[in-house]
Protein 1
Amino acid sequence: MKKTINLRSLAAQALEQVVEKGQSLSAVLPPLQQKVSDKDKALLQELCFGVLRTLPRLEWLVGQLMSRKMTGKQRTVHYLILVGIYQLLYTRIPAHAALAETVEGAVAIKRPAFKGLINGVLRQFQRQQDELLAEADSQEIRFLHPGWLLKRLRAAYPEQWEAVVDANNQRPPMWLRVNRQHHTREQWLALLSEAGHIGYPHPAYPDSVRLESPLPVHQLPGFEQGWVTVQDASAQGCVDLLDPQNGDTILDLCAAPGGKTTHILEAAPQAKVLAVDVDPQRLKRVYENLARLNMQADVKCGDGRYPDQWCGEQIFDRILLDAPCSATGVIRRHPDIKWLRRDADIAELALLQGEILDAIWPHLKSGGTLVYATCSILPEENSQQIAAFLARHPEATLVDTGTPAQPGRQNLPAAEEGDGFFYAKLIKG
């Protein structure tokens, strides 16, 4: 008989890897999901995402309920308790089942001596829940963001920062990109409706559809045949600005996982596209996306700071640079970003972005278009980055995206909108 896997113990181990060891949840979670049934994969994901989304509140509650902090090898028990409180607060799992499964998690992580402690802490939380939450929600922890990021958001968006924080704390909508080589958006929406689901067209991005409720991809009409791709609406805006044409030679730099590469080829099937990324593991996803959509592109592993190493003296008609960034615009999709990023990272990322921009600019033809994009909402990586670039390169002209005084277009995350995203479109004189 197959041994039952304790989901709560797996979640606690994953959370410890993310918060204590700095691993990304997208790297830690898939191997653990392989150990459980399809039915349980979703719950394991919910527990991990949920705890990371609400971590400051949960940590504060545990601090009130326990007189001593758990250290060393006991830290997994600490994360198991967080998983327990999360279930009691945020899920529909019956309290008795959440308690029993979380307590049993101590056995699965080989800490059976802590069963009584876990049970005691969770029951104490149930007794004191109302007064504890009232106190927690009177403090800054209610925003569920690290202090350094709140400070930056307040400075950048004095009128909007609370709306941004609120959007970051929500579950994200599911956006799709309809492949215009197969169907118009209206035709595909009709197929979706026939399948019993509802989608809404984005008002600004012509291929973009928001699902009323997220769906597994196998339920999307024609997903396997390449009729539709899962991609956030804001990410689709890059290719609209790039405006690729058949016959163009186009560089997609920092291309993994390949969503924008394939979007370029949907818009201009006869374009010659070079997709480059520094991470060989993530490049596998580019190949997978090209294969599913039955498309051809030249794919290379390379560092954007040293283009001569991977494209020699080649000149491009158009360049899309989706620059490495803090990813502060996609926190609702990746809540671990809040705990993996540090304040000092922002200046380092801005330096890297500037180096890549300066390195790749000579590879754009005169009269060519470069679109700089990030999934960040921080000005240092975005408007300030482009303002500094324009000051260094008088031959660059900003078009369709802001003004020289306030360069670029900044999307902020919102409930029924795309993720936080920044674009600047530059023409080389």
Protein 2
Amino acid sequence: MKKNDTAVVKIEDIGINGEGIGKADGYTLFIKDTVMGDLVEVKVMKAKKNYGYAKLLRVIEPSKNRVEAKCPVAKQCGGCQIQEMDYQEQLQFKQKKVIGNLERIGGFAPEVLEKITQPVCGMDEPFHYRNKAQFPIGTDKDGKAVAGFYAGRTHQIIPNTDCALGVSQNQQILEEILSVMNENHIPAYNEQDCSGLVRHILIRYGFTTKEIMVCFVINGDNLPCADKFVDKLSQIEGMRSITFSKNKENTNVIMGKEIEVLWGDGYITDYIGNVKYQISPLSFYQVNPVQTEKLYKYALEYAGLTGEETVWDLYCGIGTISLFLAQKAKQVYGVEIVPQAIEDAKQNAELNDMKNAEFFVGKAEEILPAYYENYAKEHPGQQAHADVIVVDPPRKGCEEALLETMVKMQPDRIVYVSCDSATLARDLKYLCGEGYALEKVQVVDQFPNTVHTECVTLLQRSRGKK
């Protein structure tokens, strides 16, 4: 097929970015805004030798799994790639995606995975689950300030103050901010020439505490009419922190490096289970607290703690998993590359009066091997040992040097939490080649209506393996 050709296609699968996949005369097409089972008419927009990308012209016969999007701008925004797919079907798609990667990349046999993979853990209410939102601020054709989200693969803002995934409080906050900006002619940032002032608005909400934080990200040294913003926002129930962050760089990075407090505290607090966390604008904190508690409970269960274990938590962030584990471990060591996150982790340990958690700043790939080598020098004839190692790496997974040290430390159990099942499968293949057996796989839907998913797995050291 070639560009501008039209075709009628049955959608037979879903791609990793949520696009439908179908064939026209044996030629594979990727088609956004389609659902498995749809019969659609499409127009080819880009044609390569063996596959192409097509635009949906019309749905001839909708799939039984197609539902109406809850958000009116879901298609333009692109943040919810699969909102038009029935939620139960979304869950099955995610489960199949993880299992498919474990088979294809990890080399695990289908019959083994069938025995050890638990039913996918979904949400009762798959909307309004995000405790954090970062809204870019721009200007509409009439010169008014607007807030919303970037359309997929662009920096064009789709105005929307009421995202279906965010909390309802976001809308009131944004409308108050836009009202002050428009009344006082405070300009939104312009990416084209780096002019203007207000770049983004960050909002965080504590699901348990009901505390709210607002942080202005600005292209300047101070926020004009700060008293007017504070006057409006401080009256909103639950408001605890109003801050700003200076970011004058020409960059896609949202936040600046420093935070200045305009009103209230520089943080809010929230709970996951019984553990309390202090969260600043720069803190990494899981965005779906309802599912995070479930995810951490699986991690805790898989760790099999009795109160006697030494646990290493690699890529620990602000200590969210570390402190969850510290409730039942003898000692937990957390490692994280971001210094501010480690400061937060120490603060959170203090907040919960947990004295059995210690934190180190640095790359997990460097800290753990260095610790292992130093231990051998300081304790001749002995080697560093961990009873349990928990890893929750970024999408790229673990470096081989880290996996190698983990194996040398001979933990009885490794709990691997992953946000990318492809790199998870690669790393599990390595660990299972070094004397570990994959015992459990649990998919948790942290991000309903999007293609992203989270997974927690348990690896057990084979008996007698040195």
Protein 3
Amino acid sequence: MTLAPVSFAHAADGSAAGGVPGVGTETQVISGRLETGVADFVYLPLEVPHGVRKIAVSYAYDQPAAPKGTPGNACDIGIFDERGIGLGGSGFRGWSGGSRTSFEIANEAATPGYLPGPVKHGTWHVVLGPYQVAPQGLNYRVEVELTYGGDGPAAQRHYPPRRARGRGRSWYRGDCHLHTVHSDGKRQPAVVAAGARAAGLDFMVSTDHNTSASHGAWGEYAGSDLLIITGEEVTPPRNGHWLALGLPPGEWVDWRYRARDDAFPRFARQVRRGGGIVVPAHMYCAYVASQWKFGFDDADATEVWTGPWTYDDEHAVSTWDQKIGEALRSGGTWVPAMGNSDADSEPQAVGLPHNVVLADDLSTEAVMEGLRAGRSWIRRGRRRQGRRSSATPPSPRRPRSATPGASGPHP
């Protein structure tokens, strides 16, 4: 749903109304009401003039007491720039879900979860995601402040290398589901990388929700001893979450669709074109939006163990076991299992659980290939201090087939 556009007054020289030429600020407030059953995304168009240095957005919404057993109000937020809001397009500039009440974007810096860069003139869109709307409705208030002036120096992005010092063909340990302050996590990237090292991991994957903003922060925390792989947790509304692992640094995957829209295969193909893999995450998590509804035709693996073991992991393992049986009967391919921590804050532990993957080298490409082929098993905790895992690879290599006698996941 797209609302009427909001314009900002500005002088011919690009200054704010009443401001000093070339500098100053201007604020507009947008308020409205959303009813139960509103569209998944509500777009607020902003006509941004020339000469803007920074855009700052804050928002709030009411949270009336909902009847017992009925969800209360919850509303996410993000923004797209003048390049548009087309599905999978290039206009994405950031998303913080419900983790922040404000954000800023400028050429030299941006709030975590958002992409720095010039604030160019044209139609921008603040996007609201009414995750839940109480029976009483949801009243919102969005405040947009433009700061005028020349752009500052471009922000530096330090992407991690796609290879670390490995041991050749060997078993490598890694956690493929981790969050930072760039989405709903409380940890800085430096703390997550330190946690991966403390857990004795060889690699980790960054999977902040619906944003690639953290990719440019990982370069300084990677090293010869730790491969940091870029990814994203993609969270379509009310239809389940999935991991896009091994994305090219800086690449973003759209999440604005449901299973009924038949868009998921398109974005699964996008991930694979970049060398990555597609993994349904915590399929039976108790949250309202997490139950998996996209099927397994476009899945390269599936997460069956997420964080400390609970009943929903039992259910995920049961589904995985059922899919193996179906593949065996049909002669199709089986879907490998994965285990990850989904850690975002204390006391959640990085690496509990994690994957042990047979890969030709400690590189993004080799690790993704090992996971895709199912040459992996799941471990609960860290390895013993001072020990490095190794293994003699199976020979010959066998395809990921469900025909009798073919290779499968380790128990």
